[in-house]
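Figure 2 data, in text form.
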Amino acid sequence: MLGSLALVSIVGLSTYSAFTPLPLRQFSDAAPKPDGTNGETAQAPDAAATPAGSGQNLATSRPLGGATVQRTVTDDGSVVTKFSPKPRDGNGPVLIDSQTVGQDSRVAALPNDDLLEDTPEGRLPIIGPDGLRPFEQYARPWSGARATRVAIVVGGIGLSQTGSQRAIRDLPEEITLAFAATGNSLSRWMQEARRKGHEIVLQVPFEPFDYPANNPGRGTLLTTDQPGEALKKLHEAMGRITNYTGVMNYMGAKYMSDATAFEPIMRDIGARGLLFLDDGSTARSLTDSFAKAIGMPYAQGNLLLDGQPEKAAVLAKLDELERIARRNGQAIGIASAFDETIAAIRQWSDEATGRGIEIVGVSALAADAEQ
């Protein structure tokens, strides 16, 4: 009986150690190592005693400030690590800094109020008082591994109830969803998408060359708009939802090639801590030039996946996107929430993961001067 209890205890402690949060595991590696004796106990050093440049940043977070670390070497040579509280000095609980990239999935549908400002056009994204950007807060975390990475952005969410529902329900959570500013029930769809794990961007309509014969919809930003009018339209679109990492164009070949019209829009987006995603549909776009000059995060699509919205055709485009990613290290595909497109992306994603492709949120592939 006692032997069974001991075995359960060791297994339990091993599991506890394996799932200890990363800062604790990193710190425990720096603590004194066992010398082979059973039951050795090491007191975690105080933050003030941690050498500068150790990489642990304990002066801020002190993740082991209230812990006793006990390591036990079992008969087979395995090391079991146990963390337990030690007496407090009366100064209150230890606060551990949370990550700034991404949100806890339990609150992913809720905005960070520090990253919003109230305006006549609604609650708009801003950079937080500590410098945290919406681009970082709402980004989907990725592995950080040096692998071939692909981002797929599926747009038009909010335009069709059935299409939006199917995209959120059926697409893998790694797929980025683009919400149309002209859509309906956007807050509802945003919450569902964020709970599912998707990173999201906001699609804003911009003027194409053949406007008004080809009209992107209400609130389209036009090259004839005065700067104040254009910003008002942009802010009205931005205020429709929260929790997005950036803004993406819907059409806009004419607008994005007009420096006078496009520059104040890009500056406003950048000043709010957002990325700009260019869908790559026009070679005349000034996105790259403005983003580099402003120092804001930006990305550009490499391939339109569903110009021919048939499953076989979309699968062929996805294979082409994979070849681009293997050649360049990364690639971004742009698509719409058609039934055939959703089915193709779902099938390809399962297969591509098995081939060593990592599917990431589009923010992971953005060029960013601050990183």
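Caption note: The longest helix spans residues 311-328.
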